[in-house]
């Protein structure tokens, strides 16, 4: 099985290294020249949850150099989703499929628009990672991984890929309603990421300021109203409490805060 990771940042590199270790043929596709050069020269170095790993994988900066893929795994910033979909269209084998675990709403729909609905699986990852420099990533937290067909059907390809992810060390489940899982994470992102990014505060700091805790409640009121209006039943029936406890217990820096601090464009 040949997998091309479109987007070889922290998450793409972490998943790519683990999938390579589980027996997949992995190729990283990313325009970050220094990162790709480091991987070609020294290998992909990933540490963190699973300890240190050196993965020897292909790494390229253009879709033309990526070859053909059975699976395209999209891990780009949401601003680059359409470009990634266009690249995927030139890379995927005739019977191949793409899967995304990006944050936010709209990525899945963009991939389906370009590739066709039947060639795209939905996914969500509750893991987190950080880049340490070119060729180096850290998987900082291991959480559940969810994948599934967007029409709710049971498919052999979803089960097969879930098995590979499980062998790679990711706790993976094939979800009958993967759209609800994607929205569940979207609600969490909406209630946390932008607040941390605009204030410069980590989760635990945000939770301990009454004014921001109250603002978070108003944000949750709005996103939960939208979710209900769309008829989406979240798998977490009390996601407000989940988010409040998560913020109180964690002192991590969400990716959007990291983007702000690095001077990068956010996904809003």
Break the fold down into its secondary structure elements and pairings.
Layout: E1 2-6, H1 10-21, E2 25-29, H2 33-42, E3 44-48, E4 53-55, E5 58-60, E6 69-74, H3 81-91, E7 92-100, H4 107-115, E8 120-125, E9 128-133, E10 136-141, E11 145-149, H5 156-167, E12 172-174, H6 178-199, H7 203-207, H8 210-229, H9 239-249, H10 255-261
Parallel strand pairs: 1-2, 1-6, 2-5, 3-10, 6-7, 7-8, 11-12
Antiparallel strand pairs: 3-4, 8-11, 9-10
Helix pairs in contact: 3-4, 6-8, 6-10
In short:
With 268 residues, the protein is α/β, with parallel strands linked by helices. The protein contains ten helices and twelve strands.
Plain-language structure description:
- The chain has ten helices and twelve strands.
- By secondary structure, it is an alpha/beta fold.
- α6 packs parallel to α10.
- Strands 5-2-1-6-7-8-11-12 form an eight-stranded mixed sheet, sandwiched between helices.
Which key terms come to mind for this protein?
eight-stranded mixed sheet, globular, four-stranded mixed sheet, 10 helices, 23% strand, 44% helix, alpha/beta, 268 residues, single chain
Characterize the largest beta sheet: strand count, sense, and whether it forms a barrel.
Answer: 8 strands, mixed
Structural class based on helices, strands and sheet pairing:
alpha/beta
**Cα radius of gyration in angstroms:** 18 Å
Q: Please, what is the average pLDDT?
A: 96
Strand content: 15-25%
Helical stretch count? 10
């Amino acid at each position: 099985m040949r997998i091309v990771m479109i987007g070889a940042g922290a998450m793409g590199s972490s998943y790519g290294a683990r999938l390579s270790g589980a027996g997949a043929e992995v190729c990283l596709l990313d325009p970050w020249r220094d990162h790709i050069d480091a991987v070609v020269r020294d290998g992909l170095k990933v540490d963190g949850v699973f300890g240190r790993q050196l993965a020897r994988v292909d790494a390229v900066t253009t879709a033309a150099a990526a070859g053909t893929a059975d699976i395209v795994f999209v891990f780009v910033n949401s601003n680059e989703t359409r470009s990634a979909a266009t690249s995927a269209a030139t890379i995927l084998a005739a019977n191949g499929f793409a899967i995304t675990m990006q944050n936010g709403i709209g990525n899945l729909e963009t991939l389906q628009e370009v590739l066709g609905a039947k060639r795209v699986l939905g996914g969500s990852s509750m893991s987190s990672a950080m880049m340490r420099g070119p060729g180096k990533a850290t998987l900082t937290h291991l959480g559940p991984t969810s994948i599934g067909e967007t029409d709710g059907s049971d498919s052999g390809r979803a089960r097969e890929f879930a098995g590979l992810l499980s062998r790679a060390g990711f706790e993976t489940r094939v979800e009958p309603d993967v759209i609800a899982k994607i929205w569940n994470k979207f609600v969490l992102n909406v209630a946390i990421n932008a607040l941390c990014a605009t204030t410069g505060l980590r989760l635990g700091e945000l939770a301990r300021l009454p004014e921001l805790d109250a603002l978070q409640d108003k944000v949750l009121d709005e996103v939960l109203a939208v979710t209900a209006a769309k008829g989406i039943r979240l798998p977490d029936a009390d996601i407000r409490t989940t988010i409040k406890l998560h913020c109180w217990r964690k002192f991590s820096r969400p990716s959007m805060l990291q983007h702000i601090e690095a001077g990068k464009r956010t996904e809003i």
